[in-house]
Amino acid sequence: MPEFLELLPPAQAWEVFRNALPSAVLPAERLAVVQARGRVTAEPVVSPENLPAFSRSTVDGYAVQARDTFGASESLPAYLKLIGEVPMGAAPSFSIRRGECALIHTGGMLPEGADAVVMLEHTQSSRPDEVEILRAVPSGENVLLAGEDVRIGEVVLPAGVRLEDAQIGGLTALGILEVNVVRQPRVGILSSGDEVIPPERQPQPGQVRDINSYSLSALVERHGGLAVRYGIVPDRPEVLRETLRHALSECDAVVITAGSSASTRDFTAAVINEMGAPGVLVHGVNVKPGKPTILGVCNGKPVIGLPGNPVSALVIARLFVVPVLRSLLGLSGEVWQSAVRAVLTVNLASQAGREDYFPVQLIRKGETLFAEPIFYKSNLIFTLARADGLVKIPASATGLGVGEEVDVQLL
């Protein structure tokens, strides 16, 4: 049986792979903002106006000149003349002069002359046209000034930002109804193996349903790509060759599951090398699970060969497929791997020089979060389905000890 040419540490494997990836981000397309959740900005978004467009109150209360309240307290209130009420959705027809105030509601436009708002609960009515101020306020108290959030011409969103709820709301607040976003990367997914059958079929002895095409499709789409499944490829190089060529002609990247280990029938690496330069860059990564991983680039398009075992495939996809998607989308600075600190409940052994990943369940007891390892075999998908996250044992360690605080990468 042939051996892997070289087992690279994951970080080094990614560096070799990354250096051969295309530097250009995918082209842009224009979308309605209401359809752009989860998409990535293709260019900076510049504000066409100030936000807020006018100075407004952040509370229910009375618009005042702050200096008229100085020294006011419950024992020595200030008395101001009530001259009216600020209408909602319209500009007030009056201004505030010394010794005057006006009733204003949250979001109401601050009248000319006023520079602060006293909260309603810090006032009381003494007469129909007079208000007692029971607390002093400084200038700017309980007020949003025009342009305090965003000024006209300001870059509100740089290129490479994923649009989520706050960003969508901000764009509509500025009246921006369309935005240029990066086209979603099309990722071709090939599942290989004579023993693999479609999930709608009943397996016969020796057969297994296709898991990887569907779990990897979900991962790709979760991270901003479009998954294109090319079905199940039998263990024949000519079929893999034709299917891969077809997928590369239609997609921005291709993922192949199974066919990556060093055995006599595993010809994936050879076929990838036929598809264009530079071909296979890495064949074998010093990680568990997922050692028989292939990383290649064919004429500017990434091709990743994943192990066939479902747990291994998903763990390695998080290490290499997700970063490829982020590169194609031009994502900048976004932290995508959320992590929590937890206390390990048992000892975990590891092989020095190899990076290991263990699925864990998170259990809270009182104020402490515990990480309970799930001991598994890499072909059991529900091992990962039951897990809350992964604990990494670095290559420099021979394991982690019970009671040790660890980082858990949330799934």
UniProtKB/TrEMBL annotation:
Coiled coil: none annotated. Its EC number is 2.10.1.1. It comes from the Bacteria. SUPFAM superfamilies: MoeA C-terminal domain-like (SSF63867), MoeA N-terminal region -like (SSF63882), Molybdenum cofactor biosynthesis proteins (SSF53218). It catalyses: adenylyl-molybdopterin + molybdate = Mo-molybdopterin + AMP + H(+). It is an enzyme of class 2 (transferase). Pfam families: MoCF_biosynth, MoeA_C, MoeA_N. GO terms for molecular function: metal ion binding; molybdopterin molybdotransferase activity. One of its GO terms (cellular component) is cytosol. Its cofactor is Mg(2+). The keyword Magnesium applies. GO terms for biological process: Mo-molybdopterin cofactor biosynthetic process. Residues 188-327 form the MoaB/Mog domain. InterPro entries: MoaB/Mog-like_dom_sf, MoaB/Mog_dom, MoCF_biosynth_CS, MoeA-like, MoeA_C_domain_IV, MoeA_C_domain_IV_sf, MoeA_linker/N, MoeA_linker/N_sf. CDD domains: MoeA (cd00887). The keyword Metal-binding applies. Pathway: Cofactor biosynthesis; molybdopterin biosynthesis. Belongs to the MoeA family. Catalyzes the insertion of molybdate into adenylated molybdopterin with the concomitant release of AMP. This is Molybdopterin molybdenumtransferase. The lineage of its organism: Bacteria, Bacillati, Chloroflexota, Anaerolineae, Anaerolineales. The gene is moeA.
